[in-house]
Amino acid sequence: MDNQELNRLIAEGDNSMFSGNPGDALNAYQQAWSHSRELQPDRVKRVWLLLAIANAAIQHGDFDEAFDALAGLQQGFADTGVVAGNPLFHLFVGLTFNGLGENPQGETDNFARALICGGPEIFAGEDPIFLERMKEILRPPEELGTWDGYEGASRDLLNGATGYLSHKLTEKIGSPPPYRYED
């Protein structure tokens, strides 16, 4: 396999997600992942491939596979600087814990991190109960006094998204990457 074939598999996964076939996408992304180490030395790109795997697995209802991909991110890619604090990562961890029906404390913690890091828009398209629960638990930023208009503390960590995940973020946030951090 070469880089062209790797990119073709990733594009096949993206196209399957766009077509509403997360099972087919998961298969294509997993095939790409199995060859990514030798063909894609850029570890940040591999982070985004694992996030694509997790997303496809969540959408397919395979929460064990999503958990494995997300655990792999924490274990093997935490040092890239784009895992911890990445709102999409934390959203996917919360959704995975919810889907597994395990670790409600971990679910709440990760949904809270998703809100703090990405703002309320990161929950667009998800069950509204998740965001509402976080708004009940967490006080809004003091400078705003509300969660409305809050853009998150680390949306800039979403800037590596490509393909379907970039499209998903554009739908959620209302604008495509890149995102800026403004303090």
Give an overview in words.
- The chain is mostly helical and 183 residues long.
- The model has no long low-confidence stretch (mean pLDDT 95).
- It is globular and about 55 Å long.
- The chain is built from eight helices and no strands.
- It has a single domain (3-172), classed as Tetratricopeptide repeat domain (Serine Threonine Protein Phosphatase 5, Tetratricopeptide repeat).
- Helix 3 (43-60) runs antiparallel to helix 4, helix 5 (87-100) packs antiparallel against helix 6 and helix 6 packs across helix 7 (128-137).
- Helices cover 64% and strands 0% of the residues.
- The chain has helices spanning 3-18, 22-39, 43-60, 63-77, 87-100, 104-118, 128-137, 163-173.
- The longest helix is centred in the N-terminal third of the chain and has 18 residues, at 22-39.
Structural domain tally = 1
Helix content: 55-70%
Low-confidence stretches: none
Span between termini: 44 Å
Relevant CATH superfamily = Tetratricopeptide repeat domain
Number of strands: 0
The global form is globular
At the fold tier of CATH, the topology name is: Serine Threonine Protein Phosphatase 5, Tetratricopeptide repeat
Tell me what the CATH architecture is. Alpha Horseshoe
Assembly form of the protein: single chain
Structural class: mainly alpha
The average pLDDT is: 95
Biggest sheet features? none
Number of helices: 8
Q: Helix and strand string, N-terminal first?
A: HHHHHHHH
Residue fraction in strands: under 5%
Radius of gyration: 16 Å
By CATH reckoning, the class would read Mainly Alpha
